[in-house]
Specification:
The structure is a single chain. The longest helix has 36 residues. The chain has 121 residues and is an all-alpha fold. α1 crosses α5, α3 crosses α5 and α4 packs antiparallel against α5. It has six helices and no strands. It is elongated, with a radius of gyration of 18 Å.
């Protein structure tokens, strides 16, 4: 298991009590948003790369709406659409990454070993 997977699995286990894929899937909205924020803090470059690569057409359209706005109301609507797009993409990327990291940690018995170690103390 690589260090990034271990780091994120440890974060999810210690902060939100994640003990495997099932409990990750049951995270409430506050915990899920906490995870998303942590992931974006750590991997902002990946999120931005994905946005520019995967969503380039949509991003260009939203940016055009901002820059071509005829009045402040249209410009504000464009900024709101841009913010929503970024937040939605970051959330989706973090959720996918969480599924991956938790699944990988589960496969390598990380959560089982962590519980066994906690039981010793």
């Amino acid at each position: 298991m690589d260090e990034l997977t271990k780091k994120f699995a440890e974060f999810l286990a210690s902060e939100y009590g994640v003990s495997g894929p099932h409990s990750f899937g049951k995270l409430g909205e506050v915990a899920r948003n906490g995870w998303r924020a942590q992931y974006v803090r750590e991997c902002a470059e990946d999120v931005l790369d994905d946005m520019s690569y995967l969503e380039s057409t949509r991003l260009a359209a939203v940016l055009a709406a901002v820059f071509d706005a005829k009045d402040d109301r249209a410009k504000l609507a464009g900024y709101a659409a841009l913010g929503k797009m970024i937040a939605d993409l970051a959330a989706a990327k973090a959720d996918e990454a969480g599924d991956h990291f938790v699944g990988e940690a589960w496969y390598h018995n990380f959560f089982h070993e962590r519980r066994a170690e906690e039981a010793r103390y």
